[in-house]
Amino acid sequence: MTVVEETTTAPVEAPAAPEAAELPDRPRRIGGPTRSGVLSLTGAAVSGFCLTVLLFGELAPFSGVLGFTVTAYLAFLAVYAVLTGLEEDGQAVRDRVMTVVLWTAAALLFSGLALVVGFTAWRGREALPHGNFFTQDMQASGPLDPLTHGGILHAMLGSLIMITVALAITVPLGLTCAVYLNQIPGRFSRFVRTIVEAMTALPSIVAGLMVYATWILILGMQKSGLAAAFAISVMMLPIVIRAADVVLRLVPGNLTEAAEALGAPRWRTVWHVVLPTARSGLATAVILGTARGIGETSPVLLTAGFTAALNADPTSGPMISLPLAVFNFVKSPQPTMIARGFGAAAVLMALVLVLFAIARVIGGRGPGHQTRRQARRTARASRRDTARFAELHAPGLTLFEADPQAAPFDRPTGSTTDEDPGQKPGETH
Question: Among 102, 120, 98, which Cα is nearest to 110's?
Fold first, then answer.
């Protein structure tokens, strides 16, 4: 009998075609300037400028400073992309070009802010050094008086009173409405969110007219700082609600789920978990609303009137704010009044900066970041909890002995205090 043995042979692989030598992998640098990058930027800037000069001067009938700037910038981006593409791949080229575009946008925004602040401070430099500018009102001063007479004390006090009353109205209502929109979804919450979004684009003059018609014409009240605060709060409320709603949506859902799993009611979860986690963002929402309300002019003019004297009572008599004072100062043809207007505008910007700093301090840091004081407080609480748990789990010490007020179901098994009063001795359930 012949046994045929089958042998399996592995297939012979064909010789691989010779491949080009692969370049070693080099990590691409994503931050910091390089020599080639600086040379590419400089060469692209010079090339774009020269190309634009050639187009506007010789080849095409173009003119205008704006057109020249835009054309030079586009030419700069095109040349920079070409120069970067000589050394990098397509992904790196797109990354470099978008980096330049974003840096350009940031530089434009910062330049615009610096221009506004610098121009305002420069035009108001004649009025700001005088001490009476901050300690006097305009009751006994006129347009022809020098800068050593009169000031904006009445306007500063009026703005602070109006914005304080408006914040006292807006912050509780705005945060409560944002919590409602975030925690209680439904048809009515969608309707409220739609109304809030529509109110965000409400013109300020409409808010002033509404308060003027209801508070002054219908109810017969006089123009006052309180009426102006009502109008300002109408403008601030949708800003605070929308910003706070967005911030509350960013709170991780597992935090609220963990709190409710431990048996905490919804209101306690919101008060002790949701709001503290979003405190920094809520402070930002209040800042945005304050910045919107403190710069309003038309609602104050309609509801608070105008006065050149100091009035510290928001419920009686006309009251003026800093934006309205700036408007009245600048529209005068006298140079001293114009200087007072720009000085008042500089003071208004400084006031907004101070309020922003106060809100940042109150808001604290973002979620997960603690100050040194908060870290020390947390460490002390942890040490107290550790000592308490150590006492509860001490050898030979039951839970009821460590805590006599413990609940009956927490007492150790076999305790006679848990027996039924009607149970006979020796019986068991």
Answer: 102
- SS3 call for 159: helix
Q: Please state, as a whole number, how many other Cβ atoms lie within 10 Å of the Cβ of residue 103.
A: 10
User: Does the residue 379 lie in any domain?
Assistant: no
Whole-number Å distance between alpha carbons of 317 and 310? 10
Amino acid identity at 412: P
What is the per-residue DSSP string for 148-204? TS--SHHHHHHHHHHHHHHHHHHHHHHHHHHHHHHHS-SHHHHHHHHHHHHHHT--H
Evaluate whether 255 touches 277 at the Cβ level (below 8 Å). yes
Helix (H, G, I), strand (E, B) or coil at 371: coil
Q: Classify residue 115: in a domain, yes or no.
A: yes
Domain that holds residue 310: 135-370
Distance between CA atoms of residues 348 and 310, nearest Å: 17
- The answer on 104 and 52 residing in a single domain is yes
139 and 98 assigned to the same domain? no
- Cα 135 to its chain centre, rounded Å, is 33
* Cβ atoms 285, 174 nearer than 8 A: yes
Please state the domain count of the chain. Answer: 2
Given 92, 123, 154, which residue is the final one in a domain? 123
Q: Are residues 85 and 141 in the same domain?
A: no
Instruction: Count Cβ atoms within 10 A of the Cβ of residue 291 and give its class: 0-12 exposed, 13-18 middle, 19 or more buried.
Output: middle
The pLDDT assigned to 386 comes to 86
The overall pTM is greater than 0.85 = no
Return the half-sphere exposure (C-beta side, CA atoms, 13 A cut-off) of residue 336.
Answer: 14
Mapped onto helix, strand or coil, the DSSP state of residue 339 is helix
pLDDT tens digits for range 204-258: 888 889 999 999 999 888 888 899 999 999 999 999 999 998 888 888 888 888 8
Spatial CA neighbour of 241 closest among 305, 177, 288, 182: 177
Token readout for 207 is 């808010």
Report if residue 217 sits inside a domain.
Answer: yes
CA–CA gap between residue 181 and residue 398 (Å, rounded) = 47
159 and 104 in a common domain: no
Point out the domain boundary residue: 123, 157, 183: 123
φ/ψ bin of 186: left (φ > 0), alpha (ψ from -120 to 50), beta (otherwise): left
**Pair 166, 231: CB distance under 8 Å:** no
How many Å apart are CA 232 and CA 208, to the nearest integer?
8
Please, which pLDDT band fits residue 174 given cuts at 50, 70 and 90? very high
Residues 44 and 144 in one domain: no
Coil, strand or helix at 62? coil
